[in-house]
Design a protein that fits this description.
The chain contains 20 helices and 21 strands. It is α/β, with parallel strands linked by helices. It has 3 domains: 140 residues, no CATH class; 295 residues, FAD/NAD(P)-binding domain; 152 residues, 3-Layer(bba) Sandwich (FAD/NAD(P)-binding domain), CATH 3.50.50. A 5-stranded parallel β-sheet has the order 3-2-1-7-19, covered by helices on one side. A 5-stranded parallel β-sheet has the order 8-17-9-10-13, with no helix packed on it. Strands 6-5-4-18 form a 4-stranded mixed β-sheet, with no helix packed on it. A hairpin with a 4-residue loop joins strand 15 and strand 16. Helix 1 runs antiparallel to helix 3 and helix 7 runs parallel beside helix 17. The chain is globular, with a radius of gyration of 26 Å. The chain binds NADP nicotinamide-adenine-dinucleotide phosphate (NAP). The site of NADP nicotinamide-adenine-dinucleotide phosphate has 25 residues, from helix 10.
Length: 640
Amino acid sequence: MAEAALLDQALREAHLPALIAALAQVTGDPDWLRPEWTPTYVPLSRDDIGISEAEKAKIREKAKAAIEALLGGGEAKASTPEPALLRRLMDFVAGAPIPEGYADFLADELAISGKSSKDPQFEQPRLKEAARRLNVLVIGAGMSGLLTGIRLSQAGVPFQIVDKNPDVGGTWFENTYPGCRVDNANHMYSYSFEPNHLWPQHFSTQPVLLSYFRGIAEKYELRKHIRFETLVESLTWDEGRAVWRAVLKGPEGRTETVEAKAVVSAVGQLNRPRYPDIEGLDTFEGPAFHSAEWRHDVDLTGKRVAVIGTGASAYQFVPEIAPKVAQLKVFQRTPPWGLPVPHYHEDVGEGMKWLLEHVPFYDKWYRFYLFWTTTEGFLPMVKSDPSWNGGPGAVGPENAMLREMAAQAIAAQVADRPDLAEKVIPQYPVGGKRAVLDNGVWLAALKRPNVELITDRIEKVTPHGVVTAEGTEHPADVLIYGTGFQASNFLSFMKVTGRGGLELHEAWGGDARAYLGVTTPGFPNFFMIYGPNTNIVVNGSIIFFSECAVRYIVGCLRLLAETGARAIEVRKDVHDAFNARVDEANQGWAWGSPHVSSWYKNKFGRVSQNWPFGLIDYWRATLAPNPEDYTLERQPEAVA
Ligand code: NAP
């Protein structure tokens, strides 16, 4: 039978601790959790789990028998483990006891029974009725906007979604540059309630991600709620009626005004290209484009290409275009830190896919393993130690250790090129900027004979190329900007006028802030997902943040429904105190280091993008809104 033939392959490809946990759960056999089978993880190593080959063979033998029994119709004994066993299983897969306080959070994330705190709770008839009277405008049909649509549907809240693009997918629709792929393990970078057992790669490519989100839109019948090619030009709060008036600009430039009781902005942080401020940029005569607006009509074959920027986008497209161009000059201002991930481009084996599909709970335990080891488990490596005096290249002893490991991995790849070695090992701490995943292709591309890494400052762009500070002109036929996004200009494309005529961008003064990234004083019933200070640098998937934020926003809508209030607005003192805590905490991480400049900091040098606490803290803070943090405006008749 085909399944049996796959079993041996599956056992070779399995993440054994996740498989053990799944089988311990379904068989109810405590013998699975042997001390000698408990993993010990080595940072930056997927395959070294601290279990000897002899023991691995025993695990596979026992697993084979258990799976064959299951396939042969054996009963799963314990589908939802008791709390004590659940805790033991979590500790086992994590390889060490999970710190006290994390158990509830991780159990909720694991959602072993299929239920989660993120499911909307609008079960009482009175609330359902009140939910039907709300209506919500969602801006954006990317990962967060689709998620909002799903949750509002489940809560019974009427909504419509608008998106500037002609299709769903947001960043996965817009970024089509060669080599574009997710840099978070895909079995974690997916909605917690929508696992995909068939991800073709551990880090799949953009078309695969786009197809996942298109599939979600179909499955949850979201397309009928979405107006494509529609931009929100302005939002105005009508205080008398407590509604938002939105001016929408649709296809062919038609404008229309719609009203909504609440607005959810799900527009992301990284979708307005940033062009470098370099003299002569507009004078270049050949094709010039940004990575997020890739010109597929420009054939790079045999061309002389100049790339400005070496961030996460360039890191992905440079190795793809290098073999086909005649000459590639890569202009680097600061090198990226690469963390060794040898399987970055690897396919998921058929055996692994089979396990995910057929062994109950294996998918959940595998996701749990990824979640723990790449999120909270990794954070201490980028923590600043106030007493650190080991120089600006690190922020603390663990960060210095990480630096050493990453630097060695880079150095080993350029041992034959000392000229390159001195350019590609960063001086700033790991975690100061977004680290990229290194499977060797980046440095292999830079070592090609037709590729040159240039670190001299760019003086200007001319009609025919790029001139560097010492006066050398580098001729180019095509110029590509891998220069990132206007991340800190939150919501810059629309005018948002709140209570008392207060305009959002004037209120922010270029320094966007929000409470939990979601709400800001003066703007009732206006919510953001992936808003200020909700980005993560090294720890995990932004989908987790969106799921938490949407749960919280649905909680705010529920509060309106429960209390009969018509508007909910965060208290300024609560918002300000929260932001003070955020600012202080951001100093405690590598990305807050004064030695680093990045898109995480705004023009004032404040870290405006990143969440400075653990994932657990965001999970806790967004479980439900605390009514005391808000002013609830009652209906006029209730006031009278
Ligand atoms: P980025 O990380 O902001 O990188 C921009 C690059 O352009 C940097 O190397 C920057 O140098 C350089 N640059 C900017 N202005 C310049 C100038 N005037 N002269 C010379 N160089 C200049 O942008 P990105 O690569 O598009 O990535 C942005 C974010 O998107 C990432 O951090 C990540 O969160 C996300 N992303 C994710 C993936 C993924 O794998 N899923 C892929 C792409 C992007 P400096 O460092 O010196 O400023």
